[in-house]
Amino acid sequence: MTRKIEVLDVREMLRAKEEPFARIMSAVKELEPNDVLELHATFQPDPLIRVLGKQGFTHAVVQEEAEHFVVQFYQGDTEIPFFHLDNRDLDPPNPMIRTLEFLEDHDACASGALGVEIWNVRVPALLLPELDERGFTYEVNDEGNETVQVKIRRAQ
Questions:
Q1: C-alpha angle 149/30/14, rounded to 5°?
Q2: What is the pLDDT of residues 22-39, one digit of tens each?
Q3: Model-level pTM?
Q4: Same fold, 5-75 and 82-154
Q5: What is the CATH number of domain 5-75?
Q6: 136-146, pLDDT tens digit by residue?
Q7: Do the strands 36-41 and 5-9 form a parallel or antiparallel pair, or are they unpaired?
Q8: β-pairing, 147-154 with 115-120?
Q9: Which class would CATH give 82-154?
């Protein structure tokens, strides 16, 4: 089954004082079970997080700037939330660089409050020893169809 991240940026709608709820819910309805909705908003949308949580969605939030929150919604119940990075279209060594930069740039990853799930076309053989060295654990799952899922989190 192919995985994808559907990106929906509603920041301009919010700045124009428009209501994005219907557009967001329409995007949610289009998701397949393994898909992720990546929402870009000007604030952390706690009411939406509660609504989708009641529908079985887990969320992960990162704040990129003062008025730029990235919230990912996905099906599944996990001990900690995972932020998803789709690296399948990147040429080596960019998947490794992107993953390590994300882990370094987000305090929630360092504290263990947030994990990262990457999707690569192959097992990231050079990344895995780097993760060991930096104190992260990982699970590798080769799903076929050029999708290798790696779940990364801070070692407990």
A1: 100
A2: 999 999 999 999 999 999
A3: 0.95
A4: yes
A5: 3.30.110
A6: 999 999 998 89
A7: parallel
A8: antiparallel
A9: alpha beta
